Hints:
The complex is a heterodimer of chains A (156) and B (93). With 156 residues, chain A is an alpha+beta fold. Chain A is 26% helix and 38% strand. Chain A contains four helices and six strands, in the order E-E-H-H-E-E-E-E-H-H. In chain A, a hairpin with a 2-residue loop joins strand 5 and strand 6. The two termini of chain B are 22 Å apart. Chain B is mainly α. Chain B is 62% helix and 0% strand. Chain B has a single domain, classed as Non-ribosomal Peptide Synthetase Peptidyl Carrier Protein, Chain A. The chains are: A alpha+beta (156), B mainly alpha (93). At the A-B interface, loops of A face helix 2 and helix 3 of B.
Amino acid sequence: xxxxxxxxxxxxxxxxxxxxxxxxxxxxPMQSTVFEGHFPGYPLMPGVLLIECMAQTTGWLVSxxxxxxxxxxxxxxxxxxxxxxxxxxxxxxxxxxxxHEGSGYAIGEAKGWCKGAxxxxxxxxxxxxxxxSAELRAGLWEWAERINFPAREYxx
Amino acid sequence: xxxxxDKVAEIIAETCxxxxxxxxxxxxxxxDLEIDSLDFxxxxxxxxxxxxxxxxxxxxxxxxxxxxxxxxxxxVLKNLCERIDELIAAKGA
Lengths: 156, 93
């Protein structure tokens, strides 16, 4: 996990596009400038970044379902719960499911666990928007490879 | 048996917290009810689920942007309900 770069996922461990589910893991870094402010002397993973972890896990799945024809922009977060504290060094297990593929949008449900205990969950809305540049889309393949997401397999 | 309009009006009332009595067949979702595009996604999701269809929002948006259709054709509720009924009929065909 590279918090400063918003690269939350270390690795996908299971991607089943047919079943509309993807699972990923990540480890909260021991050091980050984020923890200098959140909080001084008490480093704590911000809850909004746990939501980002869930959003990225599900977002990659949405991308695969759309054949990487558009960028899934997070547009809504509902019923988000942060159930417990997450600290530097903790490993997170994340699961994203797509429960509805609309025209130009998708709805997902995501959950996270830490040490076997449920830590966060939310319902997520994505707008599927055109990629702002060809370079951004092209850059996804390297990123996908780094986090073990089979992007090329689903790209149209 | 409730009509398509009754169901759609209930969905809009619940999703956007608009009094049910303010939602009429002649209401324009955007101009009269002031539903924004994000709230309309929630409505589309609820309509898709309730009727087992997929509102072709991307196609409608493209047609409006290209000047081939007006927003009235898709966002005045009686017209929206007609489009929904057409989609339901097409699904069963």
